[in-house]
Amino acid sequence: MRRRFLPNEQTHSIFTIDYERLKRMNYKIILFDLDNTLFPWKRFYSRDGTQELFERLNDMGFRIAIVTNARFERVEKISNFLEGKDKIYKVYPRLHKPFKEKMMSVLAEMEIEPERCVMVGDLLFTDILLGNRLGMYTILVTPFSDLTSPVIKVMHYLERFTYYTLSYTIGKLERIFNALSADEQYPSVYSVNYEKLKEWGYDCLVFDFDNTLAPRGSVSVPASVLSLFRNLKGKGFKVSVLSNGMKARLNRISKQFGNGIQVIGGAKKPLKGVMNKVFEQTGSVPEKTVIIGDQVFTDILLGKKMKCYTILVEPVSKKDLFHTKILRLLEKPFRRRLKC
Question: Which domain-ending residue is among 144, 179, 214?
Fold first, then answer.
């Protein structure tokens, strides 16, 4: 699992988060920190509209939990402020964030994988660090505080200073690695967990051809690939092949796939232009699309630029173009990083 240090995104408050986008990205549970995220520290009033937000998230199909390091006594008193007609959230106190043992128990109780959860909090070194360690989508919000206490003021400005300092130092390096690191890696297209992708709501699979489905320069499609594609279409996936190979060769190959499989050559990956054609013809959207390929600087970089889910596979042969061999050397650190 790849580790992040900084959050996936930073925003002003729980009300400025794009929950519709999180829904399209197939997240199922939103975990909110308590102090300075929903309530000021050691205070007993919430932001106006918090209960209404929870009800809207519930109507959207999200499950909601409050995960906090606060004691049982404070949580019990605060719960009364967020009661609507029905209690639509769970509260888990004394979690000892950023240590992950108790949070793992929470996820087991909720029967959810960390990758389907969003962690929302105000502290880098508790909420965000824990969420990143577990592979959650993390969102850092500005601390919700009345700033009446000198201690709170110092904590508030120290947190902001730390975030922006790290964002312009470690963060720049992290963003480069994230842009070149796939979400998952498998030995081949046959070992990908397609059932999991379908369960997560992905409906469009875009495959590279050369050295992903067949050896580079192939003019025929392996029978195993045709069988795989029939199986995937049977599961309800839309399947496309997007290659930088010559259009003439890919046009000949497309006839072997038969109807229902979109094949595009001369794609010029990682340029984004041809992907819009894929979305137009399949009717899918980036948040529900998976790009699968064997090259970091073409397939994975394209997927990251388009905000698709990305899967890196090992090349099926050692036959490569000269410039591709050079790129293989440059991409080794990113492959090793995925395997850690």
Answer: 179
